[in-house]
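Students often ask why we bother encoding 3D structure as a string. The short answer is that it lets us treat folding as translation between two languages. Here is a chain of 280 residues written in the first language.
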Amino acid sequence: MTTPTIAEAVKHAELILEPHSDSPRLDAELLLATLLGLPRSALIAHANEAVDLHHENAYAELIAKRAGGIPIAYLTGSREFWSLPFKVSPAVLVPRPETEILVEHALALLPRDAHCSVLDLGTGSGAIALSLAHECPRWAITAVDISPAALVVAAQNAKTLQLTLECRLGSWFEPVPGERFHLIVANPPYLAANDPALAALCAEPAAALIAGPTGLEALSAIIAQAPAHLCARGWLALEHGITQAPDVAQLLQQRGFDSIRTYSDFSGRPRVTLGVHTQH
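And here it is in the second language, the structure alphabet:
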């Protein structure tokens, strides 16, 4: 039996993935390039080269996993976010492009060249915290997560990117008793336990997705506790579900926040709400 060429292997994989992926060609190319240790662009130059039996079998396994719903980032072990390469594993959520909206607006809240203290709650891979650290080296950033495995990933990403990040283990504000920050950011779990969107996210950690019966539990807890951990006129910036902006804004208002604003993601859906705390 003749072994397929790179071009043939990609085409076959693309056909398999078509019913299971929004980007079957891209997925097929990324998985083979990762397996062969090549940049994706090099697949064209090597299109007529044969794929040896070892790689052919390994590729078939990867394609089967992708067709079974495993995110491409877990299979390649990495995901780009804020133009930075992040290691990811099933211990953390795959960073989403819409979360860059949170980074973008958080950066506008404080002077980039000042010594500011920032807290990232539920840091996961460290994507938000490390993107902020990359843009603002003078900011002191603390990253909290309840998952030890997630903090390992975040610390590895900090080391790879040569950025400073203080990682602490615990639930929300528990690891920072008595401390105050100029800015708190969070992309917490915000799906309700019965949200139909969960069916497509079964490979990702449920604890990072599901907040509880309503989906507002984590957001509400963070907003309630944030004032005790913010400096005077400190900011809280939160990512949330596309239907939750009015609830989040109301919760912020009830807890003494002002200048409350909501920003939409690239698809025009309300995604990030923030406010400054003015009452002490």
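Translate back mentally: The two ends are 75 Å apart (CA to CA). Keep this in mind for the problem set.
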